[in-house]
Design brief:
The complex is a heterodimer. By secondary structure, chain A is mostly beta strands. Chain A contains five helices and 33 strands. Helix content of chain A is 12%, strand content 48%. Chain A is globular. The chains are: A mainly beta, B mainly alpha.
């Protein structure tokens, strides 16, 4: 009945099968598609940089979270805390804070555009603030993001970088999370009046929230130890300048000798032990330090144990990540999709280079932790290129890191300095703090 | 490894298997895109977008042996959406780019374009991909009889279009 048409269709089909497939371009398109999907699939952890970005380098790493039932039941008696267990569980210092009643419940709400924001509570000291909140909406919060998250004291904005998670389920219409502020400088507050401000952005619609609150608890001051002691590990000189102990974190300020041949990156097991060799404080989840790219002076944050005061304290570290200064970066041409320079160790492998993305693979650096590999890039003109997106995923055998650079700033080649790398100095250090 | 084994793994979330699947079907998918969009640039963009969509949704595939058709359908849906968007700006410019000289092909192309989206997809699957009626029926969640009658109607429309066109050309 349709013989003629079927015959014509057959011819058209044969013609179509002769269409040449541009193999390499198609492969690239597939890779890009997978990258794009993976980027979206990952739970987005975001840090808004509030410092002048050029000078500041933040070291971050993220741990997988497990909740111990014992701790969960212990803190569920504190009003509003039961929902927040997962947020404080991992951090020993944060647990101690809650147990020592330094967490201050707030419970103030604001309703805007049918969304309800409740500031559940806060932990604040001179170095930062953890603001616990719940955001609820009658619709899915998928694809939402925050803009300009700010905290004010007495009407003055506190300069801070802020980290937060975003919901990854398509159906989530409620977020229980916290904003983690790390102040640029230690702050001296002028009153007990604070305010949090931020915009919720979803589907190009912006809803501003601002919730003022007054703290009743006294803000605990830091305990400062000035040391200025130098240790040498594998010929590299590291001066321990100061250790400041605050409720939320311990800040260890180190200065690296200019003559050092190696660039010092992360201290995987930096810790403070008491007179019995028990660990009093260890590496912190989240923002684990800050410094500048020149590797002169970095401040590393440890979990605090502010409320427990041992007789003696010792700062110790053994596993120090470092790379020879002249090869502590990747030099990438995103147009040619080529690596021009990279560390000779080759312990981190570049898998894919897209127009503005780079995917890397490596053996997990530390069990249950993921390190951020780069903080920012630098283009051929010496300008900063922001890494607008970073996602890490993997298992105990291999990990992947996908970094998306701000396309508009790409002028090839781009230099990406490593801030973490699985290459180590051989040796150990121990310094008595008190 | 046989195709359905790879598909099974990919459905379970195995990234390597997913990439293997895309390798297996990339020629088919690219040519599908090309058949609809008719130029390399758009077809490549379609490959990326369809990979993205497929990666996100592959866990919803119930029958591993139908995964190829499932992918082709995603591609066709994407392409048809693109063409609708394109239509708002220009209509004929696209056809000029093809560079197919032969009349049968051009005529057939035009004839297929005159069909509804659903009919286009049916013709494409049945005649270009040799997809079985049963598979189409299961994927579309409609009875086989309905597939057959739709196909019949589509062929009839083609015949109609071609003969009208033919008549018009001869006038």
């Amino acid at each position: 009945m349709f013989e003629k048409e079927e015959q014509m269709l057959e011819e058209t089909k044969n013609r179509l099968e002769k269409v040449e497939v541009p193999e390499q371009l198609v492969n690239d398109a597939i890779q890009q598609g997978v990258l794009q999907a993976k980027n979206k699939k990952q739970k987005r952890k975001k840090t808004l940089w509030a410092f002048s970005v050029a000078a500041i380098l933040l070291l971050t790493f993220v741990a997988s979270i497990r909740v111990s039932p014992a701790f969960a039941s212990a803190i569920s008696t504190i009003p509003g805390m039961d929902r927040l267990v997962h947020l404080v569980q991992l951090d020993k210092g944060m647990k101690a804070i809650v147990e020592n009643d330094y967490y201050e419940p707030i419970g103030k709400s604001q309703i805007k555009d049918n969304m309800t924001l409740t500031v559940d509570g806060i932990i604040i000291d001179e170095t930062g603030a953890e603001v616990f909140y719940t955001l609820e909406a009658p619709h899915s919060l998928e694809g939402m993001d925050y803009q300009v998250v700010k905290v004010f004291n007495d009407g003055h904005e506190l300069i801070a970088s802020v980290g937060y998670d975003l919901p990854d389920q398509e159906t989530a219409n409620r977020i229980v999370d916290k904003f983690s502020f790390v102040f640029g400088e230690t702050e001296q507050f002028t009153s007990n009046n604070f305010e949090i401000q931020f915009d919720v952005e979803q589907n190009n619609k912006t809803t501003p929230f601002n919730v003022p609150f007054t703290l009743k608890k006294e803000i605990k001051p830091g305990k400062i130890y000035t040391l200025n002691e130098t240790v040498e590990i594998e010929g590299q000189q590291i001066k321990v300048k100061k250790i400041k102990i605050y409720p939320l974190r311990v800040a260890v300020t180190l200065e690296f000798n200019k003559q050092n041949k190696m660039k010092i990156l992360q201290f995987e097991d930096m810790r403070i032990e008491d007179e019995n060799g028990e660990i009093w404080s260890s590496i912190r989840n989240g923002i684990s330090g800050r410094g500048e790219n020149q590797n002169k002076e970095n401040t590393y944050f440890l979990q605090s144990n502010y409320f427990k005061e041992p007789k003696e304290l010792y700062l110790k570290f053994d596993k120090v990540q470092a790379l020879p200064k002249e090869e502590s970066y990747l030099l990438v041409d995103f147009a040619k999709k080529e690596i021009l320079e990279q560390p000779s160790q080759r312990k981190i492998e570049v898998l894919n280079i897209g127009d503005n993305t780079i995917e890397l693979r490596y053996y997990p650096i530390r069990e249950n932790y993921m390190y951020t590999l780069f903080s920012q890039g630098e283009n051929a003109k010496g300008e900063i290129v922001d890494i607008s997106g970073q996602s890490n995923h993997g298992n105990d055998k291999e990990q992947f890191s996908i970094n998306t650079l701000d396309e508009k700033d790409i002028i090839n080649p781009i230099r990406l300095d490593f801030i973490a790398y699985p290459n180590y100095l051989d040796g150990s250090a121990s310094i008595q703090i008190k | 490894m046989v195709e359905s084994e790879i598909a099974k793994k990919a459905i379970k979330g195995d990234d390597q298997a997913f990439l293997k699947l895309m390798q297996l079907y990339k020629d088919t998918l690219y040519r599908t895109a090309f058949a609809f969009l008719k130029n390399e640039h758009d077809a490549l963009e379609a490959m990326q977008e369809v990979t993205f969509r497929a990666y996100q949704k592959i866990h919803t595939v119930k029958e591993p042996s139908y995964v190829k058709t499932w992918l082709v359908r995603i591609m066709m849906n994407y392409c048809q959406d693109q063409l609708k968007k394109r239509k708002r700006y220009s209509s004929s410019e696209v056809l000029q780019k093809i560079g197919f000289e032969d009349a049968t092909h051009l005529e057939m192309n035009e004839a297929i374009e005159s069909l509804s989206s659903v009919e286009q997809q049916l013709i494409f699957l049945k005649y270009f991909q040799n997809t079985k009626i049963k598979e189409i029926a299961e994927l579309e969640k409609i009875p086989e009889g309905t597939v057959k009658s739709r196909l019949h109607k589509a062929l009839k429309s083609l015949k109609c279009f071609l003969s009208e066109k033919g008549d018009a050309d001869h006038v």
